Amino acid sequence: MKVRIRGAGVAGLTLAHELATRGASVTVVEERKQIAGNASWQAGGMLAPWCERESAEEMVLSLGRDAADWWSAALPGHVMRNGTLVVAPARDAGELDRFGRRTSGFREVDADTIAALEPDLEGRFGRALFFTEEAHVDPRKAMLGLQQKLVQLGVRFEFGYGAVLAPGEPDIEADCTGLADPSPGLRGVRGEMLILRTSDISLARPVRLLHPRVPVYVVPRSGNLFMVGATMLESDVTGPTTARSVMELLNAAYALHPAFGEAELIETGVGVRPAFADNLPRVERDGNTIRINGLYRHGFLLAPEMARQATDMILGHKTKKELAHEAHR
Ligand SMILES: Cc1cc2nc3c(=O)[nH]c(=O)nc-3n(C[C@H](O)[C@H](O)[C@H](O)COP(=O)(O)OP(=O)(O)OC[C@H]3O[C@@H](n4cnc5c(N)ncnc54)[C@H](O)[C@@H]3O)c2cc1C
To answer: Ligand 1: which of 15, 297, 301 to mutate, judged by most atoms within 8 Å of the beta carbon?
Structure first.
């Protein structure tokens, strides 16, 4: 079975992995010159189905709870399984209660446990919710790691505009082009993020700081880097991060720990999340085309399961040769 996947975001790469490991011949065509700059590149990389349940359907938890296992098996050493810590300033304690009522899979912890888990947050918060089973990856390293592995598995990559016109007749086309997919009803949800660098604080896990208007998370990465995200704006504009968003994200990071005030601002980034009206992802088939889209805020969390479902559909699908053979019998 020959499959051509369009789009080398997390949807396309996880599908390529699933297909290649199950014996398909795969080409990935990406209109950018390399794997960088797409929505997946800007992600936090959190595999946090219990926290996400605060605003997401039960399906996000049921489809996402095995995501960390999928990433661990695909890319050994990339998954950090240290959980998620959710905190709120004393004046927003009600937010912590509200978050707890809408979620599960956490234990409530006191100031001593917060200090044991995250020594640099000692004395800053009286209580927190600790989501023990959650995990995270560095999305950029994970995507580049997948690409490297896929090449070893024999997957062909074609980059750049010309590559989109590459000849060759696959049995199946898989559209994983995110917002460029013409599916009706797909909308963009703009997410702005920052990357800060400081050696004055270290964190072992993503920390979410609740706030009634600007909730944020800080995800630690190697090299003293911290991803701070993210805005949620009903817009598909990919233009630069606004000053207001930078201010709000920095204010929130500073509220988590003043050391972030002295951090270097390494990068501001924008990604537009592809989403359907129900904010749930879809795998759809239309003739010889399969589409994975609508991953919204859950690309790293839900792409493995979407890739599994799409691969089942694709490998259950007869090739053109098989159909022609049957027609002649
Ligand atoms: C700031 C931010 C933080 C996030 N944090 C998280 C998180 O912590 N955890 C999580 O699970 N999710 C997170 N997400 C959500 C996640 O990033 C998205 O759900 C995911 O990136 C969508 O992946 P995709 O592959 O569908 O789209 P994309 O990553 O946009 O990939 C689509 C690719 O298709 C290519 N393309 C387009 N048209 C063509 C064409 N005609 N031919 C070939 N290639 C084409 C594009 O260049 C692009 O590379 C976050 C998103 C943002 C913006």
So the answer is: 297
